[in-house]
Amino acid sequence: MLNDLSEVTQRLRRVCSQEVDVSGSYQAFLQDIIDEGRTTLAVSRVSVWLFDDHTQPCFLLNVANTDWSSNADQTDYAKLSYERYPAYFDALMTGESIAAHDAETDARTAEFTYEYLRPNGITTMLDTVIFKNGVPHGIVCCEGDGGPRQWQMAEVSYAEIIADCCSRRILVSELWALQQQLTDLAFQDALTGLKNRRYLMDYADREISRHTRAELPLSMVMVDIDHFKAINDTYGHEVGDIVLQAFASCCKQVLRTEDCLCRLGGEEFIAILPHTNADNAYHVAERLRIALSQEQIRYGPEKIMISVSCGVTQVNLQLPFSQSLKQADHAVYQAKAEGRNRVVRG
Ligand SMILES: Nc1nc2c(ncn2[C@@H]2O[C@H](COP(=O)(O)OP(=O)(O)OP(=O)(O)O)[C@@H](O)[C@H]2O)c(=O)[nH]1
C-alpha cells in the first residue's frame, strides 16, 4: 500500500538510479527493485519474466524472483508456455497491465487456478509489462495471498514504474554489451582473430610495468612468414589469407594461454611471453619455427608449406617498448639475411 508516498518515492528513486550503473550486475539490480516492490506493495512474491521471442512468444522465462536467495546461483528457471496459458499471454501482448483482483475468476489469470494459484495459495495478481522498443518484452508479476484484493490505481502505476525500470536496465545492459563488442573489435585483427598492433602497444606497457614491479623477465618473439608474397602470387590473395589463418591457429597451439600473440600487420606477428627470459624465449621460437615448418596447409588439392624467420629479444624493462620492438625487428632482418627459416637473438 502506498501510504507514505514520499518515503516510497525516495526509496524507489534510489534503486532506479542504479539503472545505468553497469558496474553492478543486472541480476542484482532486478533483485533490488523487486524486493523494493514486494515491500511497498505488501505482496507475497514479485518476479520478473522475459519472453523468449518478441514477435511470436512461445515462453516466458523467470529471470528474477523475490523467493530466490540473493547469493544462490539460480539455474532452474521456471518457464510458462503460451500453449498452456494462451489467455494470459494474449492479455500481456496487448501491453495492458493485468490487475486481477481475484486471480481465480479473472479470465486472464483463471488458467493458473489448479496448477499454480491453489497449490501456492495465490489469490490476487498484478502483472505489468516490460517493454522494449514499444513491444512487450517481459513482465513484472506481483502476487498476493491474502484473498482477493482491489488494486488501487496508484499501486498499478507503481508496479508499472518497476517494469519501466527493468526495461531501461535491460536496454542499458544490451548497449553496454554492444560497446564491449565494439571495443573488442577495435583491438582485434579481423582476418586471424588475433589481437592487433593497437592492443599490443597498450598491453606491452602494462606488462612492462607489471614485470618491473615483480622483477620478472619479459620476452618477445617476432615472427615473419618467409616469401609470403610468392604464396599470394602463386595461389592468389584468398589463399594467402587462409595461410595467415592457419599460421595463427598453429602458433596458438604451440604457445601457452598466457602468451599474447598479435598481428603487427601483413605477415608479421609478435608473441609476448610473460615471465620468460631470452633463453627460454629462444626455445619457444624454435618450437614455433619447427611446428610451422611442418604444418601442411590444405587448399583443395594443394598442400602449402611455409617457413618463418624469428627474432627473439628479452624486453628491456627500463626502455620504452618501441626500443625492444626495434631490436626484435632487427633480429628478424638478420634471420632473413642469413637465409630465412631460422631464429636469431636480438
Ligand atoms: N593474402 C594476404 N596478403 C597480405 C596481407 N597483408 C599483407 N600481405 C602481403 O604480404 C606480402 C609481404 O611481402 P614482402 O614484405 O615482400 O615479404 P615476403 O614476400 O614474405 O618476403 P620476406 O619477408 O623477405 O621473406 C605482400 O605481398 C603483401 O601484399 C593479407 O592480409 N592477406
Describe this structure in words.
With 346 residues, this protein is α+β, with helices and mostly antiparallel strands. It folds into 2 domains: 5-184, Beta-Lactamase, CATH 3.30.450.40; 195-345, 2-Layer Sandwich (Alpha-Beta Plaits). 45% of the residues lie in helices and 22% in strands. It is built from 10 helices and 14 strands. The strands form 3 sheets. The chain has a 6-stranded antiparallel sheet, with helices on both faces. A hairpin with a 2-residue loop joins strand 5 (124-132) and strand 6. Helix 2 (26-41) packs antiparallel against helix 5 (153-186) and helix 8 crosses helix 9. It is elongated, with a radius of gyration of 30 Å. The mean pLDDT is 92. The protein binds guanosine-5'-triphosphate. Residues 191, 224-229, 232, 237, 240-241, 244, 266-267, 336, 340 line the site of guanosine-5'-triphosphate. Its EC number is 2.7.7.65. Pfam families: GAF, GGDEF. Residues 216-346 form the GGDEF domain. This is diguanylate cyclase. It is an enzyme of class 2 (transferase).
What is this structure, in a nutshell?
The protein has helices at 5-16, 26-41, 86-93, 113-120, 153-186, 197-214, 228-235, 237-254, 278-294, 321-337, and strands at residues 45-51, 59-65, 79-81, 98-100, 124-132, 135-144, 195-196, 219-225, 260-265, 268-273, 297-299, 302-304, 308-314, 343-345. With 346 residues, it is α+β, with helices and mostly antiparallel strands.
